[in-house]
Amino acid sequence: MSRHPLLKVENVTVRFGVLTAVNQVSFDVHQGELLGLIGPNGAGKTTMLRAITGVVNATEGEVYLSGAPLVGLTIERRIRQGLSLSQQLVKPLRNLSLLENVALAAGGQKTVSPLRALSHVSNANELAIGMQMLEKVGIADRAHQMPGTQPLGILKRLELARALALKPQLFLLDEPLAGLNSSEARGLANTITEIHQSGMTVVLIEHNLSEVMRLCQRLIVLDNGKKIGDGMPREVMQDPVVRAAYLGGDTLATSQSQEEPEHA
Ligand SMILES: Nc1ncnc2c1ncn2[C@@H]1O[C@H](COP(=O)(O)OP(=O)(O)O)[C@@H](O)[C@H]1O
Ligand SMILES: [Mg+2]
Question: From 46, 79, 104, 259, which residue has the greatest number of CB atoms within 10 Å?
């Protein structure tokens, strides 16, 4: 056991002009955990993950991975240190097959231009990693198909495979279930559980609270940029402050009613 948490977020604030998107947030992620990061729309969840990966800069505060400071490092350096972010919007390269898209990610940061990317995906080792990752997310049978013909559920799995190909120590997922129907969402949530059970530490932003409650071992709740909850899912969801934040929007009611068709 390391004496450091895998990730330590310390008093992080992110401002966009006058708007404070993340406000003095602190939390730890422990090795092996599956942590849910939840909160109403606009709470600052995506911005929090982006500040961890370096897509946006923290205005204040520190982020440590296994005790090593990340703030000030480029995204590429943070990825090399073990971070990977699976994005909310799925944007594969359309002229590459599913396998080539994942192999490209396995090749890491060497490849920025699409031209160099194309020469790169012929690397046998990277293609092998790509295939492994497609198997992990259950879409290896479509390895040689093009992204343009795939439904959203497959593209979401492709995005997971792409992010996994970076072989992260910490896997950050931003609303992987968004846009899926409840049985697709359940299937993808099960895939995320398998990835976690294979030893991956995961931080999951997710709107679908029934899946969050089923999957996560601990929840952090953001509202208006501030952390308003941190603990066991059931206890956190019973907290009046958390309930009030959700009742401001209608997320709680929506995600519970999504449960119903499941048993039909
Ligand atoms: N790049 C940006 N520039 C300006 N404002 C932003 C930017 N990204 C996010 N915001 C604002 O920050 C707040 C938090 O957004 P976000 O982190 O996307 O919330 P969530 O992911 O919880 O829905 C919102 O008010 C959003 O409009
Ligand atoms: Mg978001």
Answer: 104
Cα radius of gyration (the chain): 18
Same domain, 74 and 184: yes
Ligand 1: distance of its center to the CA of 45 in Å?
8
* C-alpha 44 – ligand 2 centre gap (Å): 7
Number of neighbouring beta carbons within 10 Å of residue 168: 19
Pocket test for ligand 1, best of 13, 19, 57, 203 (most atoms within 8 A of CB): 19
Cα 264 to middle of ligand 2, angstroms: 31
d(CA 19, CA 93): 33
**Of the residues 125, 151, 167, the one at which a domain ends:** 167
Which of 174, 192, 203, 170 minimizes the C-alpha distance to 82? 170
In a domain, 87, yes or no: no
CA angle 108, 110, 111 (to 5 degrees): 90
**pTM of full prediction above 0.85:** yes
What is the total count of domains within the chain? Answer: 2
Please work out whether the CB of residue 87 comes within 6 Å of at least one atom of ligand 1: no
pLDDT tens sequence across 23-78? 999 999 999 999 999 999 999 999 999 999 999 999 999 999 999 999 999 998 99
Cβ-count burial of 234 within 10 angstroms (0-12 exposed, 13-18 middle, 19+ buried)? exposed
